[in-house]
Every structure is written in C-alpha cells, then in structure tokens.
Amino acid sequence: MTSERKRRYAAPALDKAFMIIELLATAPGGLLASEMAAALGQSLGGLFRIIVVMEAAGYLQKSPITDRYTVTYKFLDIAYRATPARELVLATQPEMQRLALATGQSCHLVVPSGGEGLVIAREENPGVRGFAVRVGSSIDLTRSCSGGVILAFSAPQAADRMLDRAEALAASPIGRQALVERMETIRRDGFHVRQSPITRGVTDISAPIIGFGDTFLAALTIPYLELIDGSQLVSIDEARVLLIAAARRISATLGDLNDHLHG
User: Fold this and answer.
1) Would you say residue 5 has pLDDT above 50?
2) How far apart are CA 247 and CA 173, in angstroms?
3) What is the pLDDT of residue 251?
4) What is the pLDDT of residues 160-186, one digit of tens each?
5) Other C-beta atoms within 10 Å of 205: how many?
6) What pLDDT, on a 0 to 100 scale, did the predictor assign at position 25?
7) pTM (two decimals)
8) Taking 90 as the threshold, does the pLDDT of residue 41 lie above it?
9) Which domains does the chain have, with CATH numbers?
10) Phi and psi for 71 in degrees, rounded to 5?
11) What is the pLDDT of residues 225-241, one digit of tens each?
C-alpha cells in the first residue's frame, strides 16, 4: 500500500518540477517563489517544498540579494552528457564549415565508441583537390591523431576502459606505457599534430571539444594535405591556429568555462 501511495504522489510532484523549469526558462532574471506560485496557479506552500528540493539537488539557485530563483547549469550539464551525436553535430557544423573555408582543408568530428573512434561529421574542403574522411569511419584510438586527443582528454577511468577495449581489438600489443606518455604530452599542449599513419602527404591536426563541467565530447580534426605545388591556402601552423580557435569557440558554446587549448 505504501509503495502504491508513493507512486501515486510522485507524478504530480514531478509535473510541478517540470512546470517550474519551463516557467523559469521564460524569465532570465529569475522569479520569487510567490511569483512562480501565482503564475502556475499553485499554492505557495506546496510549490515551495518542491523548489527547496530542486535547490538542494543543485537544479535551482536562489539569489542572496533578490531571493529570486533561476535554473542552474546542472541542467545544461546533464543535457549535453545525455545528448545524442546528432545534437553535437548541429552545434559544431557552423564552425566546421567556417574552418574548412578558412583553411581550404577538410575537417571531421570524432567521438569515442568503445575501443575505437567514430567519425560522426565532416566538412569537405571548398577546392577541387583535397582529402576527407568518410562519416561512419572507425578510427584507431592508439595510432591516430584524433585517438590521441580522445584518450588524453577523456576522464581517466573512461580512457582506461577505452584502452582495455582497444587492446582486446588489437592484433598486436598497443604499447600502453608509450601511449600514456603521449597522452600526457597532448594534455599539456592542448592539441595533437602527427603524420597520418595511413595516408602519405597528410598531417593530422586535432583539438578537443570540451563541454560543461570539463566533459570531453569529441575531437575536431583537420587531415592537412600539403600539395606539391604549394598552392594550399594556409600553412600547417596557420591551420593549427585556426583549428584551435574553432575548437575554443565550439567548447565555449557547449558550456566549457575553462580554456584547455594552447598554441
């Protein structure tokens, strides 16, 4: 009987919590508890208990000056961590398009997927000659530039799990200790540059996309193709600077409050 009663009263309380969130979304300056109760047609006593619980859980914050409540970044943090790849692509595409135009090179976005990386988006270079990685391609985490960034900027436990899976997939030893040392260098530098282990004439440049709460989201990578006649639009160093700037802007848009990138 007790469990049935809890289930019966859980839905109305949850409904009121969602109503509070939606109401505060329309009031950037925040609202008093009494204003929320009046706007929602609820009793102040009943609504205030829910507000207090939401504040204690970190979803609402109360101004010490005005007593107005606003929604915290915790909602944004959860939303981005639970958001599917499609939403990440929508957030990064405008910057990827600008990056391809500015550098004359293609770029792509790689997310961790088990013991591999997965290309979920790409932007082709605007010229008639270039190199691009296909969407849906699997990326070797232990050998690729994107993989180095993914391992370096992921949470340590997540990186360890990825390395365990990569080891299980590999036909030969992955050289784990050397990988760990490389990850430390990448974290210190804030980006990674290396010759492509697969394609001659291509130098990969990669930087992390970081979301709210220092959460690693993806690696943004340029497979820089150097043409024999020197007609590329920018140098490798210039492309690196532009890539890092794009990664910074994307990360800021996605809620990163710290600058993890150098160069």
Assistant:
1) no
2) 32
3) 92
4) 999 988 888 777 888 888 899 999 999
5) 28
6) 84
7) 0.66
8) yes
9) 2-72 (1.10.10.10), 82-253 (3.30.450.40)
10) -80, 140
11) 988 777 788 999 999 99
Where on the phi/psi map is residue 63: left (φ > 0), alpha (ψ -120 to 50), or beta? Answer: beta
What string of H, E and C letters represents the secondary structure of the chain?
A: CHHHHHHHHHHHHHHHHHHHHHHHHCCCCCECHHHHHHHHCCCHHHHHHHHHHHHHCCCEEECCCCCCEEECCHHHHHHHHHCCHHHHHHHHHHHHHHHHHHHCCCEEEEEEECCEEEEEEEECCCCCCCCCCCCCCEEECCCCHHHHHHHHHCCHHHHHHHHHHHHHHCCCCCCHHHHHHHHHHHHHHCCEEEECCCCCCEEEEEEEEEEHHHEEEEEEEEEEECCCCCCCCCCHHHHHHHHHHHHHHHHHHCCCCCCCCCC
Name the token pair of 104: 């004359």
Mean pLDDT of 63-90: 77
Copy the structure tokens of residue 15. 């409904």
